[in-house]
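User: My collaborator sent over this chain with a note saying "see what the structure looks like." That's all I know about it. Can you take a look?
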Amino acid sequence: MLSDEDIKRARKIALAQLPDIKEIMRQVSEQTGVTIAQMKGVRRYADVTAARQLVSYIALREGHSVVMIARAMNKDRTTVVVGARREAAMRAVLQQDTLTD
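Assistant: Without extra context I'll predict from the sequence alone. Here is the result:
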């Protein structure tokens, strides 16, 4: 049976649940107007690409693995990694612009 230590560990795991990637996609879709189907699709329009990059960045920040994100978005791992890096770079540029104004 489970020891007290096992039960404590199980409770910590239950409390540390990650936000669902689909929920992240839904919220980004709501804010950007890009549908989840478009994010999962093959089109590379600027608004769709930016939404994908934002989802990748947020999901990685929240602790999801690259593979989990890629599967949820029907993309390959490199798309997720590059997208998250581009979003991080864009944020750094925007932060720098804010500091210099």
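A starting point for your reply to your collaborator: The chain has a mean pLDDT of 90.
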